[in-house]
Design goal:
GO terms for molecular function: enzyme-substrate adaptor activity; protein phosphatase regulator activity. The protein is mainly β. The chain contains 2 helices and 36 strands. The longest helix is centred in the C-terminal third of the chain and has 6 residues.
């Protein structure tokens, strides 16, 4: 696979899902590619799941559509740039709306007088075993297993029903008919197969499918539960950090994930900036961790905000399973499973905000939870920032780039230009001052195609898909 070329003519095509109005229900809350990268699912604050499917057809530049409408959702297409000739054939690989369905509805807990939002917190795909697709989606309390399948034939010729589906009088049935399947327009159906509820007192922040594909875990602030896909009425509690006296509570669980290859191993991160690796073979209740990852704090950098900005918002195993990546407020860190005392790599995402922590605390931005992702070969990592900026770091060359997901800057056939933030002094023409950054525009959720240089970036209620240059 070609490496991502930073800032030297890297050409990207872009797909976005815009809304001219700012309906809070349309704000995207999670983005996830499936295991092949052919499907891309997004969840939003309104409890909806939208699935995009990659079109594999080959077309010329003149045939490439500019606008596609589907499922009531407008999707603007940016054609692939840099065609060498007018009729040169290229693989489009564009993503179009495949299915849209309502996953969760708002609920009310009458015992605790609490409203349960319909917002989709996480989506996780299961590997495809047959013609249908399966995915897990969760809000704060309930996890659902969805089956997404296609239907292009309908049965006709019932014996006990008429053509309109009404039951016939058995006395009028004198002959036996053999039902036949007739072609029909393709229909994509999403049906809930399992509902996993009533197991979490606190808000679910993570779900992770195990490599045995028989179990998965769900994590909230104080507990992690292990579920079997076939059993919905009970789960097994594998981590419980709730103290006997809640006044003694010093940290909460912020994220958790299974090892990609070892079904007995998982990690979870905390609000204190620590990571715990647990082995389910050691004990049934994994209160005692196998490994404990923590970087000692530099006393010279200690401040009022130190504990807040050290809280880990996301943790991800590398595809190889050798490394762990964590994201806190200002940095992305890569940890080697064999070295617990400090990370092997630290990348500054937006260190220029260190002087603005006070104002970020006042407007609550300091509590934003940014995600981070690996590329398919674990050589590049990506995470989001403010002003609709997202950052990429090449682990081999140590080069980094800042790009912007913007309708104004993502023009058709255009090349994404690197952006730079000016901290102080004289500002160049192509730089943006740190004082003029828009903190209401933020890239919290990102995803990377499992094998190609295709990334999905969620910017509030817009979805951008950038693709590497096609030669």
């Amino acid at each position: 696979m070609r490496k991502w070329n930073f800032g030297d003519g890297n050409s990207l095509c872009s797909v976005l899902k815009p809304s001219e109005w700012r309906n809070p229900a349309d704000i995207i809350s999670t983005v996830e590619f499936n295991h092949t990268g052919e499907l891309l699912a997004t969840g939003d604050k309104g409890g909806r799941v939208v699935i995009f499917q990659r079109e594999q057809e080959v077309c010329t530049e003149e045939q490439a559509p500019a606008v596609v409408l589907g499922s009531g959702l407008q999707v603007l297409k940016f054609n692939l740039p840099s065609f060498q000739s007018k009729n040169q054939v290229h693989r489009r690989g564009e993503y179009n709306v495949y299915s849209t369905f309502q996953s969760h509805e708002p609920e009310f807990d009458y015992l605790k007088s609490l409203e349960i939002e319909e917002k989709i917190n996480k989506i996780r795909w299961l590997p495809q075993q047959n013609a249908a697709y399966f995915l897990l989606s969760t809000n704060d309390k309930t996890v659902k297993l969805w089956k997404v399948s296609e239907r292009d034939k309908r049965p006709e010729g019932y014996n006990l029903k008429d053509e309109e589906g009404r039951l016939r009088d058995p006395a009028t049935i004198t002959t036996l008919r053999v039902p036949v399947l007739r072609p029909m327009d393709l229909m994509v159906e999403a049906t809930p197969r399992r509902v996993f509820a009533n197991a979490h007192t606190y808000h679910i922040n993570s779900i992770s499918v195990n490599s045995d594909y028989e179990t998965y875990m769900s994590a909230d602030d104080l507990r992690i539960n292990l579920w079997n896909f076939e059993i919905t009425n009970q789960s097994f509690n594998i981590v419980d950090i709730k103290p006997a006296n809640m006044e003694e509570l010093t940290e909460v669980i912020t994220a958790a994930e299974f090892h990609p290859h070892h079904c007995n191993t998982f990690v979870y991160s905390s609000s204190k900036g620590t990571i715990r690796l647990c082995d389910m073979r050691a004990s049934a209740l994994c209160d005692r961790h196998t490994k404990f990852f923590e970087e000692p704090e530099d006393p010279s950098n200690r401040s009022f905000f130190s504990e807040i900005i050290s809280s880990i918002s996301d943790v991800k195993f590398s595809h190889s399973g050798r490394y762990i990546m964590t994201r806190d407020y200002l940095t992305v860190k890569v940890w080697d499973l064999n070295m617990e005392n400090r990370p092997i790599e630290t990348y500054q995402v937006h260190d220029y905000l260190r002087s603005k922590l006070c104002s970020l605390y006042e407007n609550d931005c300091i509590f934003d939870k940014f995600e981070c992702v690996w590329n398919g070969s674990d050589s590049v990592i990506m995470t989001g920032s403010y002003n609709n900026f997202f950052r990429m770091f090449d682990r081999n060359t140590k080069r980094d780039v800042t790009l912007e997901a913007s309708r104004e800057n993502s023009k058709p056939r255009a090349i994404l230009k690197p952006r730079k933030v000016c901290v102080g002094g004289k500002r160049r023409k192509d730089e943006i001052s740190v004082d003029s950054l828009d903190f209401s525009k933020k890239i919290l959720h990102t995803a990377w195609h499992p094998s190609e240089n295709i990334i999905a970036v969620a910017a509030t209620n817009n979805l951008y898909i950038f693709q590497d240059k096609v030669n």
